[in-house]
Amino acid sequence: MELTFLCATLAAVSVSFVDGVGYMGVRPPSLKQCCYKDIDKAHFSYDNNLCEGPDNWCKVHPCWTTCASKKSQSPININTGLTRYKRYPRLKFEKILRRVLANVRNNGHAPYFEVHERYDDEITVRNVPERPRQKEYNFAQIHVQLGQDEKNGSEHSIDNVFKPMEAQVVFYDKDYEDVTDAKSKKRGLVVMSVMVEVYGQKPENDACGCDQETCTVRYARRLSALMEKYYEKVRRYPLASINPDFWTFLSLPKKCWYNRCGKTPTKEFIKNRCEKEEPDRRPFRVFEGITPLDVLPYDTNRFYTYSGSLTSPPCYETVQWIVYKCPIKVSAKAFKMLQLVEDSHLKPLPQLGTRRPQQKMNVPVYRSYLK
């Protein structure tokens, strides 16, 4: 009888993890596994009904305790009436007209474009707001976030107005090897955020903020083409070919053994415990290449900027956000292809969305233009 029960349990666990593991971004809740010792097994969900949802990210692994910080977490609502004007020099890009080699991946949470680095082809930016003027940052990634609600998919909002999507262009400090190396370092990252509308759909609010100054909205033809073509290639996340060890899961704790939520791990701890090894899966090559120009709006002179964080674990507070006032548009097909991408549970992304709930932070937000 005991043997029969054990075999049945093993089979049930095995099937559950074949269906739901992949990147292990969302865990089957029946296991009641809420925290990990091994960073390579740690994963998170956008579902707040699960113990690994956004409200509990800080408890999943000691490397993610910063997610509960009350200092400068992202994303936020930008209240334009409370922003402070500050004159900034123009962003200085190098080689931005060049299209660099890239790959597209599905990490089990969302798809993203990633620069395939070659040192002679780096696109860089300097004159970043609130950073030393001559400090250079390398172009690394393009992400497009969406939500459960088609009209409210952006992570940031401007005067509580959301857009269907938010494109995020990631740069990292050139002094470091890559994004992984730079993301935990002070002032290691710069992210340029652009609100994204859907061509043919009338936005809820044509204005870019409470000052009622309208924008000339650019149709992002290149970004649309990339989304239409390559999101199809990574629609389904490749599931792992092996089952997790049953006995390992039996021994997992039902409750977390620590709670340092809100505290940032030390540099030594991050170096020794927090370097997550990505699975060795072959990405799809983006033959056309990518450039920040695929995403940037017509008007790059008007933006809001603040010091914030990554919007997913480990939530390090190392990001200078540049949130552009004016949006862009992509095709309805591009939006649809993003909606069809599946997470590691083979569920379409809109089921949970890929946006972190906004954080109520009292951080200074500056604007680059006079009202």
From TrEMBL:
InterPro entries in alphabetical order: CA_dom, CA_dom_sf, Carbonic_anhydrase_a-class
Annotated GO biological process: one-carbon metabolic process
Cellular location(s): Secreted
One GO cellular component, as annotated: extracellular region
SMART domains according to UniProt: Carb_anhydrase
Pfam families per UniProt: Carb_anhydrase
Entry keywords, A to Z: Secreted, Signal
Protein name: Alpha-carbonic anhydrase domain-containing protein
SUPFAM superfamilies assigned to the protein according to its UniProt record, in alphabetical order: Carbonic anhydrase
Native organism: Mytilus galloprovincialis (Mediterranean mussel)
